[in-house]
Specification:
It is found in: Endoplasmic reticulum membrane. By secondary structure, the chain is of the alpha+beta class. It has a domain at about 25-155: Immunoglobulins (Immunoglobulin-like), CATH 2.60.40.10. Helix content is about 25%, strand content about 30%. It is built from four helices and eight strands. A five-stranded mixed β-sheet has the order 2-8-7-4-5, with helices on one face. The longest helix has 27 residues, at about 165-190. The chain starts with a helix and ends with a helix. Bound molecules: 2-acetamido-2-deoxy-beta-D-glucopyranose (NAG) (3 copies). One 2-acetamido-2-deoxy-beta-D-glucopyranose binds next to strand 7 and strand 8. One 2-acetamido-2-deoxy-beta-D-glucopyranose binds near residues 30, 91 and 93.
């Protein structure tokens, strides 16, 4: 990151030198681009070929560079921005710079991958995305080629769990249940259906094993002898 900002500063400084005669203000490579060099470009968008970029999602661009000049170029940086479709000078977001240092000889080609993330807070609508490569010749002169400058669709990122949908389904189920309950109570009210009463659970009654012989256990017991004596006494 430090190296990238150093490069960015070097570029800004180089630009400031070239334009200082015209304007005495802070310069930025995205608003004050160096002249176009003899590099032809082409790009592919492997992850989003339809140019529908998710807000907060990583977008890859593979850029092919072809040096059509007579000297070697050192492709040092790629930078880009997201701009208002109504007014290009309105930089809504500046993407981070990427450093390369790829030297392309005359007639040679190279391909580089640039990655950027449209801000997650962007509202889903059209924007212009502009991506530019910056390179130097052997004398250190800066050049630029914008390889992408198009209207894109910023779309909502697909959520892993769609809570809104889950809430909606839950609400729908609740309404269905409420309707079913209302229909049931109404029908019961009309007397078409008898409400089912829950049967009260009674404690299980133990099975009786026949009359208990009380005399059985007292036989031979002193109590038995006492009773027999009493009975005979009463009979007398
Ligand atoms: C992006 O950079 C430009 C200069 O190129 C600057 O004017 C603008 O304020 C920056 N925008 C943001 C959102 O940082
Ligand atoms: C290409 O440029 C980068 C920075 O702009 C530099 O660090 C690197 O040494 C250069 N490569 C060559 C081969 O000159
Ligand atoms: C992108 O294109 C618009 C016009 O469509 C132009 O005004 C703007 O300067 C271009 N940006 C770059 C970085 O080339």
């Amino acid at each position: 990151m430090g190296r990238m900002s150093m490069l960015g500063l070097a570029l800004v400084a180089a630009l400031a030198c070239t334009v200082s005669t015209q304007e005495e203000q802070a310069q930025h490579p995205l608003t004050n681009m160096p002249p176009s060099g003899s590099v032809q470009t082409a790009f592919i968008l492997p992850s989003f070929p339809d140019k529908k970029f998710p807000a907060g999602g990583l977008v890859d661009v593979v850029v092919g560079l072809h040096n059509e000049g007579s000297e070697a170029y050192n492709v040092s940086l790629i930078a880009g921005s997201l701009n208002s479709p109504a007014d290009f000078s309105l930089h809504v977001q500046n993407f981070s710079m990427a450093a390369y240092g790829e030297v392309i000889g005359p007639g040679e080609e190279a391909s580089l991958t640039y990655k950027f993330v449209p801000d997650a807070r962007l509202s889903p609508r059209d924007f212009v995305v502009a991506l530019t490569s910056f390179y130097t010749d052997s004398k250190g002169q800066w050049y630029s080629t914008t390889f992408f400058n198009q209207t894109v669709d910023i779309v909502e990122q697909k959520k892993l769990v769609d809570w809104e949908l889950i809430m909606l389904v839950g609400l729908f189920a609740f309404i269905l249940l409420a309707l079913a309950y209302w229909a049931y109570t109404t029908v019961v009210g009309w007397g078409w259906v008898k409400p089912q009463k829950k049967r009260a659970k009674r404690a299980p009654v133990p099975k009786q094993q026949g009359p208990v012989d009380l005399d059985e256990w007292v036989k031979g017991h002193p109590y038995d002898q006492y009773m027999r004596k009493r009975n005979t006494a009463i009979k007398k």
